[in-house]
Amino acid sequence: MDTRQHNFGTEGLTRFSHVQAWIFDLDNTLYPRDADLFSQINVKISTYVARVLNIPIDEATLKQKHFYKTYGTTLRGLMVEHDIVVDDYLDYVHDIDHSWVKFDPVLKQAIEALPGKKYIYTNGSVPHALAVTEQLGITDQFSDVFDIVRADLIPKPDRVPYEKFLDETGIKPGEAAFFEDLARNLSVPFDMGMRTVLIVPSSKSVMQPQDSWETSGQDEKFVEYVTPSLPQFLQAILDTNQWNSADGSN
Ligand SMILES: [Mg+2]
User: Fold this and answer.
1) What is the pLDDT of residues 187-197, one digit of tens each?
2) Which of 17, 51, 96, 174 could form a cystine bridge with 193, CB 3.0-4.6 A?
3) Ligand 1 mean position to 124 CA, how many Å?
4) CATH number of 37-93
């Protein structure tokens, strides 16, 4: 498997043997970037920004990129720079066709086989997360879904919501692993003592060219593992660690 491992030689995936809390980002992590869900969400966000700021759509698209890079979410940018309180934003931008996310039997099998508890931590919303996990057939696998509302609308990579997430779930960071498609969102989890895994687009993925900041950071110390395939990576962890099936229940 094409998986890069940093900084720890042959120890490899046995470094996950103690993990009891598996934390997954949602978009472009639990489902591959090829699903291209964000092309739908991006159109909705640009339309929303154009409407509330009363600007042309191309200008709104640039604003959106700026907000995303600077604040982690467009919603946060609207709040900070424009003092806009939006109540319908999350419903509006996530009202998309979730059937673009395809069921993956390898992912489902691997998620079910992981020992301990599984969580979703997303800068999106709970209804959006559940629509995705329904497509993937894994909704019942998650102990909790921590979304941007629970995070008091403060997105990753800000440290504050990570701390709230740990407080509310009781997760011990030394027993956790964090999976993300944005490198910068792994900095705090690494500092807290979690295993960190970056999901990168597979080489055949040609949709949605990424901005340079989105792909930067892959070589940082806080990115412990890099893989183009979450299902294959989880399967490799399972193959390496051979947990008893009796430990696989929640
Ligand atoms: Mg993501």
Assistant:
1) 999 999 999 99
2) 174
3) 9
4) 1.10.150.450
